[in-house]
Amino acid sequence: MNRRLTGVIAIAAVIVFGVAYVVWTLNKPSSASSGNASTAGLKFVEQSDGRNTVDELAPDGARTTGSLKCQRFYTAAGTTSCLRLAGPGPTYELAVLDSAGTVLKTVGLPGVPSRTRVSDSGKVVSWTVFVTGDSYLAPGGFSTRTGYLNLADGTVVESLEHFTAYFDDTARAHENFNYWGMTFADDDRTFYATLGSGTQTWLVKGDVKTQEVRTMRTNAECPSLSPDGKRVAYKKRGGTLGAWQLFVLELDSGKETRLPGTDGLDDQAAWLDEATLAYAKVPQGQAPAIYASAADGTGEPRVLVESASSPSPR
After folding, report:
1. pLDDT tens for residues 266-308?
2. How many domains does the chain fold into?
3. Which residue intervals make up region (Disordered) (predicted)?
């Protein structure tokens, strides 16, 4: 009798486990999205084989391998920014390409590629590199250099360090500031960035014409301006050495929204549309993957592409 009862229990357990596995399989994140308006045409840097090719996500979730190789990548309005290896050492450069893949301009970089953006008009390209160190994890333990190129007039500014910074209307010029994560408004003049000094970071709003920046708030890094120019997404620490999380700030009201499930990201998020942000995150012990989150803070992140980084809208 006991043996029969044990057998029945074992069979029931197998059935329950099997049903649970099927449910989990149907609901687990896929290696790429099923394809929708925001993700079809998404471009990214392939990270699975070390070649760093710029690939594209098809509407059905398939990946199309490209020939361009970049450490960091972004594209807008037919202009592509590619931060890439330039020679032994290693040395690096910014390569700006048009929609046909023709290189329009190269600029030598003084360090390891970290961030890049192209303005919505395609006329201004910005970049950030590590001059010393290779991570933002240790406050004060690295040095960055951020610059930009204006394709309309050929202006190249290799560093923002000579800009005048205003802290509550008090000017501080030519100090040892780090800048990173530059993002431009649609006038190609106004920008947002991170200013770092010691262990403190600030979200700043700047003007390339006046060469001035003004602090807006502390503890905000790698900003990304929304397509409508009304919101800024950035990563924010939960404490001095806490994990970064993604937040969205409404510029008019000052309302700040935390995006759940973004703990541990280290990226400058990209707006795929007015409602969706994409970013790379490295799950513990795994390769980097690109996730998407709703900009209004609803829902949980979903995996768009595994073994990938540097997402850029089509």
Report:
1. 999 999 999 999 999 998 778 899 999 999 999 999 999 999 9
2. 1
3. 293-314
* β-strand partners of 178: 196
Distance separating alpha carbons of residues 96 and 149, to the nearest angstrom = 9
Asked whether residue 26 is assigned to any structural domain, the reply reads no
Between strands 212-218 and 164-167, the pairing is parallel
Tokens matching residue 186:
């649609």
Q: Is the pLDDT of residue 6 over 60?
A: no
For the domain that residue 197 is a member of, what is the CATH number? 2.120.10.30
Which residue range(s) make up the domain with 246? Answer: 34-312
Q: Answer whether residue 236 is part of any domain.
A: yes
Q: Which amino acid is at 139?
A: P
Helix (H), strand (E), coil (C) string for the chain? CHHHHHHHHHHHHHHHHHHHHHHHHHHCCCCECCCCCCCCCCEEEECCCCCCEEEEECCCCCEECCCCECCEEEEECCEEEEEEEEECCCEEEEEEECCCCCEEEEEEECCEEEEEEECCCCCEEEEEEEEECCCCCCCCCCEEEEEEEECCCCCEECCCCCCEEEECCEEEECCCCEEEEEEECCCCCEEEEEEEECCEEEEEEEECCCCEEEEEEECCEEEEECCCCCEEEEEEECCCCCCEEEEEEECCCCCEEECCCCCCCCCCCEEEECCEEEEEECCCCCCCEEEEEECCCCCCCEEEEECEEEEECC
Nearest Cα to 213, choosing from 159, 268, 271?
159
The owner of tokens 């970064």 is 244
Q: How many CB atoms lie within 10 A of CB 71?
A: 20
Q: What percent of the chain has pLDDT over 70?
A: 86
pLDDT for res 201: 94
**Domain assignment present for 3:** no
